[in-house]
Amino acid sequence: MSVPNVLIVFYSRNGSTEKLALAVAEGARAEGAEVRIRRVRDFVPEEIIQRVPGWAENRDRMYALYEAPTEADVEWADAIIFGTPTRFGNVSAELKAFVDSLGGLWFQGKLNGKVGSAFNSTQTMHGGNESTNLSMYNFMAHLGLIIVPTGYADPVMFQGGTPYGATHVSGPQGNPPGESALAAARFQGRRVTQVARALKTSKAS
């Protein structure tokens, strides 16, 4: 049986999206995937980062834990799962900058047929949970990825997340994801892995 390679690329400022990424990874590994977790880098000026309580500390902690994603990671992956906090109902600039750097691989056709999926976190209810996941569908389609949503293919999806991918609402206090959001993220990791394995097995045969 083929072992699918799953790449999780995320951006997180206060840790909410990071916790979803870890839950996605847990689900993927439970389904037998080889997993790499990568956090994209900040490019906001340091003086702005220092004005926001906790930003620099979380950035430094995550820099120590997670490597930056590379083209080699993307080539290695059979599936790429993108995670981001919502920025005005859309993907964060930090994650989008990494996506924009993949033009060379796209031009060579090296992304065609890989699996793609998306998850996100917002601060406010109805703050862009669905629109942010859908916004990532746009660039995944351009890259040639086979988009895999969560749908309602598992009962956990009726308790948390959206049919487009796992989500979390942190609130003004930055509350971490609860069990329903984490369960949706774990299911997303399993589902993406299942599809990636089927595609990889089909190609091998």
From TrEMBL:
Highest taxon, organism lineage: Bacteria
What NCBIfam families is this protein classified in?
flav_wrbA, PRK03767.1
Where is each Flavodoxin-like domain found?
A: 6-192
Q: Name one GO molecular function term.
A: FMN binding
Q: Which organism is it from?
A: Chthonomonas calidirosea (strain DSM 23976 / ICMP 18418 / T49)
Q: Name one GO cellular component term.
A: membrane
Q: Which PANTHER family match?
A: FLAVODOXIN-RELATED PROTEIN WRBA-RELATED, FLAVOPROTEIN-LIKE PROTEIN YCP4-RELATED
Name under which the protein is recorded:
NAD(P)H:quinone oxidoreductase, type IV
Family statement drawn from the similarity comment of this UniProt entry: Belongs to the WrbA family.
What Pfam families would the database entry show? Answer: FMN_red
